[in-house]
Each structure stands twice: as C-alpha cells, then as structure tokens.
Write a structure and sequence with these properties.
Layout lengths: L10 E2 L17 E2 L1 E3 L9 E4 L2 E2 L2 E2 L4 H6 L4 E5 L13 E4 L2 H13 L7 E6 L4 H14 L4 E5 L2 E4 L14 H13 L4 E5 L2 H5 L8 E6 L7 H4 L2 H13 L3 E7 L3 H4 L2 H6 L3 E6 L7 E9 L2 E8 L2 E7 L4 H16 L4 H7 L11 E2 L9 E5 L4 H12 L6 E5 L8 H13 L2 E4 L9 H9 L8 E3 L3 H11 L5 E5 L6 E4 L2 E4 L2 H17 L3
Parallel strand pairs: 3-4, 4-7, 7-8, 9-12, 9-13, 10-12, 13-14, 14-15, 15-16, 20-24, 21-22, 21-24, 22-23
Antiparallel strand pairs: 1-2, 5-6, 10-11, 16-17, 17-18, 19-20, 25-26
C-alpha cells in the first residue's frame, strides 16, 4: 500500500468525542477525517478549531466549512461566540487536552503499533532520523520518517507537511498512514517550536535523541538559554522512555545529571569525549566516506561510513546508539552501515558529468554552527581550496548573520555572499548584515543573484577545489516576498558543472 492510498475508516462523531459535550449532533453523523488546519480539510472532515500558540483556529471555521467540514469542535467557553455556521458546532471542555483522546479513537491509536524515535537538536535532525529509518529498513523492518523533508516510508517520495514537527492532529494521521503501510518504526524530528508549543507532549517516544545545541531561533525563544532549556526539556518529559545524548556538546551534557536524578535510561555518544559510551575513532577520510572504529557497550567494529564529514559520523553514532538502545543487535546494525545513502541536501555531493571537475556539495547549513561544521568537514575531504556560497534568510534571527559571515571568512578560502530566502526583507540589507562579520582584510565577493553566484563559483574555481553551496539544501524554491519561486541549488550546480565540462572540452 502507498501512503497516498490511505483512507481512514469513517466513524460517528459522538463515538470519538468526550461525553458531556455541548451542542446538537446527530448520532449518525459520520466523520471521514480529523484536521486542525482548515487548508487540509476535505469533504467529510471534522475541523478542530484550536486557540493557542499555533494561532486562532476559530478564524478559519468558514474556510473549513467551504472545504467540506461536516462538524466543528471548539472550546466549550467559546461556543456562544461561534455564530452563523452551517454545520454542527460542538463545545468541548478543555478541548486541547482532549485532542489526543479524540484523534486516538478516530485513528485507532496507531502509535501503539509503532516504535517512535524522536530527534531534537539544532543540527543533524534530518540526517539522524533518516539514518535510523534506513538502518531499520535495511534490517527488514519497515520504517517511516517525519521532519523537515516531509514524511513517508524509507525510499519512497516524501510528502511535505509545511513544518518540521506538525501539530498532534496531523501527527496522528501520519502515524496511521505509516501503520497502514505496515510500518513498525517512525523516526521523527522534534523542533524547539514543536516542544514549546506542546505539539508532542502526548506522543510516547521509545527513544529521544539530543544531537547538539547551538545558536538558532533566538527570534522566537529570546535567549540562547531559553532555547537550550526547551531542547533539553524534551528528554526530561515523562513521555520519553530512553535517551541518547551527544557527549561532545557541553550544552547537551547539562541534561545528564537531570536524567540521572529522574533515574532515566540514557546512552551518550561522541567522537572527542573520552567518557562517551558509544565512540568512534577516525582512521581515514576519503573523498566520499570515512573509515572508523566504533566502540560501544554492545561491542566494537570497523566501519566504512558512506557519508562525508566528521559531524555525519557523529550523526551515525546517534543512530547506532538509538537502535541498540531499543534492542536491535549491534552486529546487525554494523553490517547494514555500508549500504546507507546520504540524505538529500545534507552534504550531498552533486553528480559530476566528467573527470577533472571541482567537487560541489549542497548543504542545508543555515545556522552558524552548521556552516562551521560543514566547512570543517569538507576541509578533511578535499586537497584544493574550499569555496563557500551562502546567504541568510529574511524575517529570521538577524543576530546570526554577522556570525555566519565571520565563520565563512575563517573556514573557507573563497567566500561568495548571496541571497537565500529573503522573504519580505531586502536581500541587499541581509547581505550587508552578513558582511559586518567579515574582517576588513578578507577577500570576498557579493553576488546577490543566487543562480549567478553558484555558476560563477563553479566556473571560476580550480579542478581540485571544492564548492559548498550552503543554506537551502533540499529546498526547491526561493521565498521572495510572499512568493515561492522555483529554485533548486542541486540542479543549478548540475547545470554549472555541465557548462564547465563543455567549455573545457573546446579549449585548445
């Protein structure tokens, strides 16, 4: 079965909502789906109009009805203010607290049939969730993924959700789809927004992973400490059974004493930390892999990791620790590692049309630490100069722009500053903020048009150089104003490499 073929079994509204509801409802009224986003409503849906951190759902009741909603749920105290609605409106006391029960009854508690792996952290979430799911699939266990890249079964095309961690209603639907496809595991990204807005507090996680904590989302959380506390709180919650923590990250390590106080099961991983329970000793960097020895409580083994960069080896350690903590045999996990595939837009090497061309990588790095880690990782894998093409997103934390400019100038040999997703900001103003962090004696180039910046970097570097195109990764669009304009770094780089190959052939 394909996920797109999934259709839940209709149920009567009165069979899934709490007793003592307010409103007139026919006992025969059938519900074909449950949604909390009016844009996802289809004919026969129940629309839950939530008010809270995610917005005021009651403003979208008319949209939901237009899209085919046959009933509306609102907070009991708001029932009198919802007027002139053509379908039954039902008041539920403590609506948000009752959503887990409502959705579980409708979708037949799908999470009970899944092992749920939750991954939070600033960077690496998409890679770790993909590695966890891939390893399960390679061991014959059907697995799904949910996160920034969308959701779906391993090796299938993913479906976009519009956010890293969807609301609980959408999560329950996704869990049901995974189960319908015979999935036994789901690895999902857990964002700081999702934690703070309580989107995951009613999901029981078998394994909770904390990958790292670095500068990000301060426009939302206010301070780094607030942000870090939110990340760590995920592992401390009652709905997380066992935890996996990055021992190389000092801000991650701060959660360990608290886990000990709560008597929680946990495993640490790391490359540099001497006390990490799951460790890797790097033997050799190759152009597209890393040779290393894995040391763990379950055994030790030599591996060839088919990924690029030290931080990706760290991501692999997190995945190994997660599977083994859940009961999967260490030797089975090790045997599957050489069959892993890189994740789209995560230090993804662009296919070269010919020999003698520079190496080009596309990466989603859009935070200071992610950019630094990507550049440091590639430095170990290339022999020539390291180029970076990057920008910063508009309408997002402006404090990281100068920091990223400084990092680019420090860790790359050639810097090209360009536009990212400017949204409603002036791209030139964003670039000006980035340049503030670049030392006055550093050579850099500003090319605001991203396609031109990528093409010129690939066209002008030497054959043994490496170009990192950072910031957008898997995204196949640019956000300019309020418009999504088709744009895919990988394809732009492919074209530039082909043009360079053709121009090389005609040279005397």
């Amino acid at each position: 079965m394909n996920i797109l073929d999934y259709s839940p079994m209709p149920k009567t509204l009165v069979s899934i909502i709490p007793k003592g509801f307010h409103g007139e409802v026919s006992e025969q009224l059938l519900i074909s789906d449950v949604q909390a986003d009016s844009r996802d409503v289809t004919p026969g849906s129940l629309f839950i109009a939530l008010c809270g951190l995610d917005g005021d759902g009651e403003k979208y009741i008319s949209n939901a009805v237009e899209n085919g909603a046959v009933a509306i749920l609102v907070e009991e105290d708001h029932l009198c203010s919802v007027l002139n609605v053509e379908v039954p409106v039902v008041g539920i006391k403590n609506l948000k607290e009752n959503i887990p029960s409502i959705t579980e009854k409708f979708y037949n508690s799908p999470v009970d049939d899944l092992s749920v792996f939750g991954v939070t952290g600033t960077n690496g979430k998409s890679t770790i969730t993909s590695l966890i799911a891939q390893l399960h699939a390679l061991l014959g266990i059907k697995a799904g993924v949910l996160g920034t890249l969308g959701y779906g079964m391993v090796n299938d095309e993913y479906i976009d959700t519009g956010m890293t961690t969807p609301d609980l209603v959408k999560c329950q639907r996704i869990f049901a789809e995974i189960v319908a496809c015979k999935g036994k595991v789901i690895a999902m990204e857990v964002s700081s927004h999702g934690i703070h807005q309580r989107r995951v507090e009613n999901i029981n996680f078998d394994i909770a992973v904390l990958s790292n904590i670095t500068h990000d989302h301060l426009d939302y959380h206010g301070t780094f400490e607030n942000y870090a506390n939110v990340k760590r709180s995920f592992l401390l919650s009652d709905n997380c059974k066992s935890c996996v923590v990055n021992a190389d990250d000092e801000d991650c390590r701060k959660v360990i004493p608290e886990l000990q106080d709560l008597d929680k099961n946990y495993v640490t991983f790391g490359i540099d930390a001497e006390d990490a329970m799951v460790k890797a000793e790097i033997k050799k960097y190759s152009p597209s892999s890393i040779d290393a020895q894995i040391l763990s409580p379950w055994g030790k083994a030599d591996i060839c990791c088919p990924l690029v960069g030290k931080f990706n080896l760290s991501n692999l350690l997190a995945a190994i620790a997660s599977l083994c903590s859940s009961g999967v045999k260490f030797n089975k996990v090790i045997r599957a590692i050489n069959k892993l595939k890189p994740v789209e837009g995560r230090l993804q090497k662009v296919d070269s049309p010919a020999e003698g061309l520079p190496s080009v990588f596309v990466d989603y790095a859009h935070t200071p630490d992610a950019l630094k880690q990507a550049l440091m990782a590639l430095r170990n894998h290339v022999s020539g100069n390291l180029w970076v093409v990057f920008g910063c997103g508009g309408d997002r934390d402006p404090s990281k722009r100068a920091i990223m400019g400084e990092i680019a100038a420090t860790f790359a040999d050639s810097v090209v500053i360009t536009s990212d997703n400017p949204r409603t900001e002036d791209p030139k103003a964003i670039i000006k903020d980035i340049v503030q962090g670049v030392a006055s004696d550093t050579a850099y180039e500003v090319i605001a048009e991203r396609e031109l910046a990528i093409s010129l970097a690939i066209g002008n570097c030497s054959a043994n150089d490496c170009v990192l195109i950072a910031g957008k990764g898997h995204e196949n669009y640019q956000l300019i104003g309020h418009t999504k304009v088709p744009f895919y770094d990988y394809h732009i780089a492919e074209v530039a490499l082909r043009q360079r190959a053709q121009s090389t052939k005609v040279m005397p």
